[in-house]
Amino acid sequence: MTTDNATDVDGRTARWAGRRLELLALAREYVLDQGVSNLTLRPVADAMGVTIATVIRQFGSKDALLRAIVEDINTELAVELRAGREPDSRSAEDLLRALWRRWSHDPRKQREFAVCFELYGLAIANPQRYRWFLDSVVTQWLDIIEVQLDQVSIAQAEKRKVATLILALFRGLHLDLIATGNRERVDETFELVVATLLNVVGPR
């Protein structure tokens, strides 16, 4: 009895068609645990409990899988922030402190930032291959932060610049925190910056 290979492939594709989100969640956890610098599809597939062929059918390639994971992280963050505005954000300073607590004290967010920093390095070394990351890593995060700035009194003309400054502050301190683990110094530095930042760029 012969086997119709096309039928077999279609059957496998149909089997996983409704489980792409499940596979993406499994792949995301693996990448957050293991990082991206030495990532290959075989151990990812093994961790997901599927074949490499299934991963390729669902995501196309390793780079496409990484892109799907980063987009999933950014989308989740945007949804979280839009759905649950920071309750203690009575002022711009309160908002920054609330966001810093959420992003720097949550172990899961720390893992996400670490992966993004790895991708930064890879993208700088190979900008053509990771153009999708360089094109999104600033603009998407600025949009997310600007939504939060709608809660406080920031002059409309200044919002993009303020969001850029906040993004630079958060990323720089996160990189320091991941590199050194010195939370006390990093938190104190954050407070020092916040104490003066929005007095300079606030409403005009």
Notes on the protein architecture:
The structure is a single chain. This protein is mainly alpha-helical. The protein folds into two domains: 1-60, no CATH class; 86-201, no CATH class. The chain contains eleven helices and no strands. It has helices at 5-17, 20-34, 41-48, 52-59, 62-83, 92-105, 107-125, 131-136, 139-149, 159-180, 183-201. Helix 5 (62-83) packs parallel to helix 9 and helix 9 packs across helix 10. The longest helix is centred in the middle third of the chain and has 22 residues, at 62-83. The radius of gyration is 20 Å and the shape is elongated. The mean pLDDT is 82.
Q: What are the salient characteristics of this protein?
A:
single chain, 204 residues, mainly alpha, 2 domains
User: How does the helix and strand content classify structurally?
Assistant: mainly alpha
Average pLDDT, all residues: 82
User: In this structure, how is the largest beta sheet organized?
Assistant: none
**Helical region count?**
11
Radius of gyration: 20 Å
Oligomer: single chain
**Helix percentage:** over 70%
Low-pLDDT sequence parts: none
Which H/E pattern describes the elements? HHHHHHHHHHH
Please provide the count of β strands.
0
Query: What amount of the residues lies in strands?
Result: under 5%
Number of domains: 2
**N-to-C terminal Cα separation, in Å?**
80 Å
Assign an overall shape.
elongated
